[in-house]
Specification:
This protein is 40% helix and 20% strand. It has 283 residues and is α/β, with parallel strands linked by helices.
Amino acid sequence: MKLVQTIDALRSELDAVRKEGKKIGFVPTMGALHQGHASLVARSVAENEFTVVSVFLNPTQFNDKTDLQNYPRTLDADCVLMEQVGADLVFAPSVSEMYPEEDKRVFHYPPVDTVMEGAFRPGHFNGVCQIVSKLFEAVQPDRAYFGEKDFQQIAVIKAMVKDLGFAVEIVPCPVIREESGLAMSSRNTLLSEEERKTAAHIYKVLSQSKQFAANHSLKDTQKYVVDSINSVVGLEVQYYAIVDGDTLQNVESWSDSDFIVGCITVYCGAAPIRLIDHIKYKG
């Protein structure tokens, strides 16, 4: 496995790969990699002849400077894990390499980028689109793999791909969970052992809500989830939206759509750490 840190070096490596007619799979990450990332890479390795993983902590998608400062950075360990799962190349550029000058492009894809994370983290998805578009231009992959934990992000990236005309297939991959049910996230490393146990209640309640929903209205189910999670000491729901899985717009009843997803963001612990998850009710 090779590690490159400049776009020129990346393109030089990939030009040679393309000349051999190989398909290129791509997994963009912000580092602090875990088994969730490893599952994306393993799928890319299975479906392509060459797999690129980017490790870049993108400053433009953080609207909270403290969150950016606290985000774990573990490049050496990341490279070890990526080699173990079969990645061919890791691209780990500097901020100045990706942003030699300020990126003033504005991406806006209503309605999918204006709700939930888009409403609570102004500028977040614009930053995501800035960096993912730059990475797609540099890598020019045939397929790109994203975890469904970031459910809304996938919808936004699909809209951007259509808008900019990228010839890349976006491949959503299932959430990988810890034994407790907690969705794997780089931010989990910022939780204490006790906080990790507390955070496991998020998915426990979401799972229980599927049974609750069978005999209750959508609004009652939403209230059940929020109240149940807020009753756990150390957890506080920022939002819980039950939406159409394609448009990400709120639905009022279970009959409004054939694809219904509950998307949640919860603050956990003293710091606190912001955790996201979702549950599929229909579809």
